[in-house]
Amino acid sequence: MLESKKFRQLQSDQWERSEFAEARTESFEFWFRQTKELCNKFKSTEPQPIQQEPIAQDYPEIKQLLEKVRYLEEEVERLKKFDTSANKRLQQLRKKKA
User: At the top level of its lineage, which domain of life is listed (predicted)?
Assistant: First the structure.
């Protein structure tokens, strides 16, 4: 068989990297122990500061932008209604001409 350190043959046309096969055979206990060690390494008993996201009350520019967005959304809705009613009116006029 043509196997090397990095690859091994599974079937006639399938090859597998041997390090992947080794990783799969690792036990659950091994990964659990590794994870537990990492968690303990970074565990802290001191309270972590809460990071507050900026809100409109803290930044007047954001508040102004939000107001503009609301106004533009209302304007878009109004124009959609106008466009629909204008199209209906145009269709009615075309029917009368025909």
Answer: Bacteria
Global confidence as pTM: 0.33
Determine the Cα–Cα distance for residues 7 and 73; give it in Å rounded to an integer: 60
User: Left (φ > 0), alpha (ψ -120 to 50) or beta: where does 88 sit?
Assistant: alpha
Place of tokens 């972590």: 48
Using one digit for the tens of pLDDT, what is the confidence trace for 21-69? 555 556 778 878 888 887 777 776 666 676 666 665 667 787 888 899 9
| Residue 17 and residue 5 in contact, taking contact as beta carbons nearer than 8 Å | no
Tokens of 8: 């091994």
Q: Encoding tokens for residue 80?
A: 């959609």
Distances (CA, A) of 78 to 29, 58, 82, 85: 63, 31, 6, 11
